[in-house]
């Protein structure tokens, strides 16, 4: 299952945005209002939980400055990645799109498609808070 957030413009250079997203603590600023839990559990990992959803542990998998940051699920039960694609627009603005890729059975995909789609859209729309 592949989902994409809308592409959003941020008033930061691509490198500034990359550096902000490289610090997992900053993901708390991007979370939706209905966050039930956010806990940093290392320099490259955090756990978050939304009301009505199981907690998810995300770990930094790869960073390619200044264009790509890849986070992945730390558990094999829900294998997925969340990729931030950063595009430089000018010296002080950039665009970012989040791509969610996961391998789920049809039933699970049906259940999580809506909530995950809303979630990555919220993350993208909150990029200006960094």
Q: Mean pLDDT, as a whole number?
A: 95
Largest sheet: 8 strands, antiparallel
Order of helices and strands: EEHHEEEEEEH
What is the tally of beta strands?
Answer: 8
Apparent shape: globular
Count structural domains.
Answer: 1
- The end-to-end distance, rounded to whole angstroms, is 28 Å
Detail the poorly predicted runs: none
Q: Mind telling me the C-alpha Rg?
A: 14 Å
Q: What structural class is derived from the secondary structure elements?
A: alpha+beta
CATH superfamily (homologous) name: START domain
Helical proportion, percent range: 25-40%
Tags for this model:
single chain; 130 residues; alpha+beta; Alpha-D-Glucose-1,6-Bisphosphate, Chain A, domain 4; eight-stranded antiparallel β-sheet; 3 helices; 8 strands; 42% strand; Carbon monoxide dehydrogenase subunit G
Secondary structure topology:
Elements: E1 2-4, E2 8-10, H1 14-22, H2 27-30, E3 35-40, E4 45-50, E5 56-64, E6 68-73, E7 80-90, E8 93-102, H3 106-125
Antiparallel strand pairs: 1-8, 2-8, 3-4, 4-5, 5-6, 6-7, 7-8
